[in-house]
Amino acid sequence: MINPGTAPIEQASEDLAAIALEAFLADVRVRAAEKADLTIMTRVAEPSGEPVRDPAADRDGRYGWNLHYTDNHIIRLLIPGVALPLIRDDITASAPCLYVDGHAWWWASAVGMVAGQGLRVKV
Description:
Elements: H1 14-36, E1 41-43, E2 52-53, E3 62-68, E4 74-80, H2 84-87, E5 98-100, E6 103-105, H3 107-115, E7 119-121
Antiparallel strand pairs: 1-7, 2-3, 3-4, 4-5, 5-6
Helix pairs in contact: 1-3
Protein name: Immunity protein 35 domain-containing protein
């Protein structure tokens, strides 16, 4: 079965993707703080600096940014260039997916994937 959220986006806009990026990173900060409060997780890396726009990563109406972490890990994020409510739609399967390191995720799952990048299980 093909996920309809991975279909190419017509008439996408880099400006709308940039707006969605800000909202996405705000959600990531909230989720990361929640995860770090768990007793089994510890923070080992933080996002460092601003996301770096990577036009070479753009595809199918999604715009690329690289997120850098203090442990030198980089996450490639592709965000759809559509209105934020369409991306955050968690009711229909047709909401456009974000891509985190090449894997398609709907908004909430993508937030969780990125939020967990700087966390490791305590040993």
